């Protein structure tokens, strides 16, 4: 039999002919994939995963030095770790909060929460305006039920039920021979408020990072700081912050005081720091005093000024070989060990003639001999007996080369800057050291203290605080308030009395409120039998 020949009764059914077969499905298509991706993104599971990723992504920002805050530490890390350093740098781990991958996680989290919360809020709003659900056919199957009889008519029972339930803030609705009541929407409202507050916190953090700034300054007693970009030791502006918007305030540190434990195992531990400040909100404004303490920042110019740390700034007078004063000022020293504040610093004297001078010095605030009597140590952080050791150098400091230098480090040692033979000396306040070969004289005039201040302007701080308070309130409401439903049905019994059925349903465990509702409905105790199931 050929393809064109068919026998009677053997022809394929029309529905099974190859040419008439319906087209097979080819996939959900691009629009379907987009809908699927959106549904996955806006699930609570995805939001929790993204929240975890944000927290995980912030870990390198705490564990590794960050370029906006400490570029010199990043450079040192790269020099010390030739393999990991460049790899971390390619991943933007030295500037985590500006990294594209962190921004992507942050934006996805924001979109995920918004896509999850907004539809739930709309659904919740509709549910709050909807009528309570009608009474089930068999109230006895509910977790909480009660049945009793009364001489009141069914209408009187239902009227009483509406009054009792409304008095307990239930929303009620009459449905024939039954009254339906519902309350407890505050729990879901609190849940939504919590998630909306999370969105608010994310938004506030974004606003703070975009339009705020943070800067650090080191201020010695007697010095004044004017709020200008060039006067900061470190400055980290937000991406949208305009430095011309810096408020024109100024700060003067008159005195810094630190208190320490003097006895016991905690001897030398700081107990209190106080910076005596004078500040102006503008150049023409009057000066105002302020005692700056830890956790008690100064609010000025839309920013907050925090006290961070402290140290010592020895005061030196340096005369060159011609006897002229080439340097006279305080020099901040950095602590070598935080417990007793042994500190180091350098003094650069580019104006000395005929050769430039420099000094490396170590300060012991309370100098004493070590236990083996072979070296000097500091026995207490307060300046009870300050002693400084000076090492002198002469030559070219390299300041005219145009290459920036650290004020805490001498450059060109052994090349353009050489030690002066015999140029090492221990000095106490008021003592002078005449340098060998008539190179000059250095005098240790005394000791001042410095403090580091953090100036922080964060326009998102107040919105973030409000959002945090709302989040806590919403969380408390979501855990303490539960959805509750009560139905009351009244019908005529065989003996002419009215049979009242009451059913209750609570999201979670049953509450004692149901018993109180039944007691209020019954009024005076009835002789009839009551059946209650909880």
Automatic annotation (TrEMBL):
<feature type="region of interest" description="Disordered">
    <location>
        <begin position="1"/>
        <end position="24"/>
    </location>
</feature>
<feature type="transmembrane region" description="Helical">
    <location>
        <begin position="47"/>
        <end position="64"/>
    </location>
</feature>
<dbReference type="GO" id="GO:0016020">
    <property type="term" value="C:membrane"/>
</dbReference>
<feature type="transmembrane region" description="Helical">
    <location>
        <begin position="192"/>
        <end position="213"/>
    </location>
</feature>
<keyword id="KW-1133">Transmembrane helix</keyword>
<feature type="domain" description="ResB-like">
    <location>
        <begin position="44"/>
        <end position="509"/>
    </location>
</feature>
<dbReference type="Pfam" id="PF05140">
    <property type="entry name" value="ResB"/>
</dbReference>
<keyword id="KW-0472">Membrane</keyword>
<dbReference type="InterPro" id="IPR023494">
    <property type="entry name" value="Cyt_c_bgen_Ccs1/CcsB/ResB"/>
</dbReference>
<keyword id="KW-0201">Cytochrome c-type biogenesis</keyword>
<feature type="transmembrane region" description="Helical">
    <location>
        <begin position="101"/>
        <end position="122"/>
    </location>
</feature>
<dbReference type="InterPro" id="IPR007816">
    <property type="entry name" value="ResB-like_domain"/>
</dbReference>
<protein>
    <submittedName>
        <fullName>Cytochrome c biogenesis protein CcsB</fullName>
    </submittedName>
</protein>
<feature type="transmembrane region" description="Helical">
    <location>
        <begin position="462"/>
        <end position="481"/>
    </location>
</feature>
<dbReference type="GO" id="GO:0017004">
    <property type="term" value="P:cytochrome complex assembly"/>
</dbReference>
<feature type="compositionally biased region" description="Basic and acidic residues">
    <location>
        <begin position="9"/>
        <end position="23"/>
    </location>
</feature>
<keyword id="KW-0812">Transmembrane</keyword>
């Amino acid at each position: 039999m050929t393809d064109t020949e068919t026998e009677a009764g053997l022809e394929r059914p029309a529905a099974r002919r190859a040419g008439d077969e319906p087209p097979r499905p080819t996939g959900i298509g691009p629009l379907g994939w987009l809908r699927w991706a959106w549904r996955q993104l806006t699930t609570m599971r995805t939001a929790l995963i993204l929240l975890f990723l944000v927290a995980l992504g912030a870990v390198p920002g705490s564990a590794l030095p960050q370029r906006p805050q400490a570029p010199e530490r990043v450079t040192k890390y790269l020099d010390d770790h030739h393999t990991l350093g460049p790899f971390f740098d390619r991943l933007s781990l030295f500037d985590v909060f500006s990294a594209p991958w962190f921004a992507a996680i942050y934006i996805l989290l924001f979109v995920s929460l918004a896509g999850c919360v907004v539809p739930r809020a709309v659904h919740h709003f509709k549910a709050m305006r909807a009528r309570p659900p009608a009474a089930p056919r068999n109230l006895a199957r509910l977790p909480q039920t009660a049945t009793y009889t009364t001489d009141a008519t069914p209408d009187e029972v239902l009227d009483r039920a509406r009054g009792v339930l409304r008095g307990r803030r239930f929303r009620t609705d009459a449905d024939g021979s039954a009254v339906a009541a519902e309350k407890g929407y505050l729990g879901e409202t609190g849940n939504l408020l919590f998630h909306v507050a999370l969105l608010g916190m994310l938004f506030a953090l974004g606003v703070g990072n975009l339009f705020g700034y943070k800067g650090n300054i080191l201020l010695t007693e007697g010095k004044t700081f004017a709020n200008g970009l060039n006067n900061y030791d470190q400055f980290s502006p937000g991406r949208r912050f305009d430095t011309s918007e810096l408020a024109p305030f100024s700060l003067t540190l008159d005195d810094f005081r630190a208190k320490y434990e003097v006895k016991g195992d905690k001897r030398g531990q700081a107990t209190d720091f106080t910076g005596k400040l004078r500040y102006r909100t503008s150049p023409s404004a009057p000066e105002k005093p302020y005692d700056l303490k830890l956790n008690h920042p100064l609010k000025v110019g839309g920013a907050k000024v925090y006290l961070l740390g402290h140290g010592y700034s020895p005061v030196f007078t340096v005369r060159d070989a011609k006897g002229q004063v080439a340097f006279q000022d305080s020099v901040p020293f950095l602590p070598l060990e935080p417990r007793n504040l042994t500190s180091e610093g350098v003094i650069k004297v580019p104006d000395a003639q005929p050769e430039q001078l420099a000094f490396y010095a170590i300060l012991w605030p309370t100098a004493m001999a070590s236990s083996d009597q072979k070296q000097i140590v500091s026995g207490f952080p307060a300046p009870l007996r300050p002693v400084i050791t000076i090492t002198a150098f002469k030559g070219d400091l390299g300041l005219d080369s145009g290459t920036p230098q650290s004020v805490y480090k001498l450059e060109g040692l052994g090349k353009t800057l050489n030690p002066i033979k015999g140029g090492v000396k221990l000095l106490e306040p008021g003592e002078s050291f005449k340098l060998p070969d008539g190179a000059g004289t250095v005098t240790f005039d005394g000791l001042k203290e410095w403090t580091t201040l953090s100036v922080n302007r964060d326009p998102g701080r107040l919105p973030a605080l409000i959002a945090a308070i709302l989040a806590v309130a919403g969380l408390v409401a979501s855990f303490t308030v539960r959805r509750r439903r009560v139905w009351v049905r009244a019908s005529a019994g065989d003996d002419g009395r009215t049979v009242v059925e009451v059913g209750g349903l609570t999201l979670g465990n049953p509450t004692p409120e149901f018993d109180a509702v039944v007691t209020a409905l019954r009024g005076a105790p009835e002789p009839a039998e009551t059946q209650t199931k909880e």
